[in-house]
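Write out this protein's structure.
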Amino acid sequence: MIGKRLRLARVNKGLKQIELGCLAGLDEETASSRVSQYERDVSSPDFRLVCRFAEVLDVPEAYFYALDDDLATLILQYHRFKKNHPNSTLVITAQ
């Protein structure tokens, strides 16, 4: 899940792999290849690196770990709502 969502968030932010890697603190020499490996799920970043990616991409860490795509979407929507309405409470009702 991390790879797919990492790529989606990076593309939506308009960043190249090397840019994301460098902004997250990876060495410039290996940033692009490491991000590529993470996006293809060849290897997995540790939690601290996922946190740095999340900060750069302005998404919550939980977005990368949600098993369900609908849940990942809800996590993003909640994150955006709280960012735009920090003192509000979101109420979700079942339909």
